[in-house]
Design brief:
InterPro entries: Leu-rich_rpt, Leu-rich_rpt_typical-subtyp, LRR_dom_sf, LRRNT. GO terms for molecular function: signaling receptor activity. It contains five helices and ten strands. By secondary structure, the chain is of the alpha/beta class. It is elongated and about 160 Å long. Helix content is about 35%, strand content about 15%. The strands form three sheets. Strands 1-2-3-4-6-8 form a six-stranded mixed beta sheet, with no helix packed on it. Strands 5-7 form a two-stranded parallel sheet.
Length: about 260
């Protein structure tokens, strides 16, 4: 066997092996790209992204290393209490996000930044959400599921849901566990006819008016006290002057004009 034949006999299998490894890397996610406690599977439907399932994994926070080609992310039934701003920023293929049955309490302005153009379904049901930033859902076109949360119906929530005109269904499932209006507690959010933002403004105006009236009353009280105190001091000084012995007249001192008259 010539050296050339020997080299070819060894190089061809190596090339085939390398080609197979490259195809495996391109077609199947490696174990290092899948977050700990999750399973990753390539979707059979276009665009052939990843389905990442982290359900029932006892997660306390959202994994920061979710693969960028993820199109389905299941984070339900964990112990996640916080959705950091821009945590999903790099997931531009994400279509479905399931955060149900967790312990999320509030949502900031940038919680879903980066998902505006791709997200189709966002499930936030069965959490502990009481409040959201008014811009939390502003740019999302997804169908948002927010039922079974202890909502506090206030101005921010009214603005957040009011900016989801394309997603009227979300507001129909919001019940006010507490509210700025006591008679609305336990009622559906859509039953709140009042403008909660103006209500808050009126409450602030009343508080400012009461505060200004209090200061004005304090000033008036101080002025009255000051005047009375000066009057008392003047009276005492006058009584003191009256109590002084009068100066005796000299024999050759002329009488007062008023006396002569």
């Amino acid at each position: 066997m010539t050296p050339l034949d020997l080299w070819l006999s060894r190089s061809i299998p190596m090339c085939l092996l390398l080609q197979s490894l490259v195809l495996m890397v391109l077609c199947f996610p490696s174990a290092s790209t899948c977050p700990k406690g999750c399973t990753c599977q390539r979707s059979e439907s276009p665009p052939h992204g990843l389905n990442v399932t982290c359900s029932l994994s006892r997660l306390k926070e959202i994994p920061p290393d979710v693969p960028p080609e993820t199109q389905l992310l299941q984070l339900d039934r964990n112990h996640i209490s916080l959705v950091p701003d821009r945590i999903f920023h790099g997931l531009r293929m994400l279509r479905r996000l399931n955060l149900s049955h967790n312990a999320v309490e509030t949502l900031g302005e940038g919680a879903f930044v980066g998902l505006e153009g791709s997200l189709e379904v966002l499930d936030l049901s069965h959490n502990r959400i009481t409040s959201v930033h008014k811009e939390a859902f502003a740019r999302l076109k997804a169908r948002v599921v927010v039922d079974n949360n202890p909502w506090h119906c206030d101005c921010a929530l009214q603005q957040a849901l009011g900016g989801m005109a394309h997603n009227h269904e979300a507001a129909t499932h919001v019940l006010c566990r507490s509210s700025e209006l006591r008679d609305q507690e336990g009622q559906p959010f859509l039953a709140v006819d009042a403008d909660l933002c103006n209500l808050a403004k009126r409450t602030t105006d009343y508080a400012m008016l009461v505060t200004m009236f209090g200061w004005f009353a304090m000033v008036i009280s101080y002025v009255v006290y000051y005047v009375r105190q000066n009057q008392e001091d003047a009276r005492r000084h006058l009584e003191y002057l009256k109590s002084l012995p009068s100066k005796p007249k000299k024999p050759d001192e002329p009488e007062d004009i008023s006396t002569v008259v």
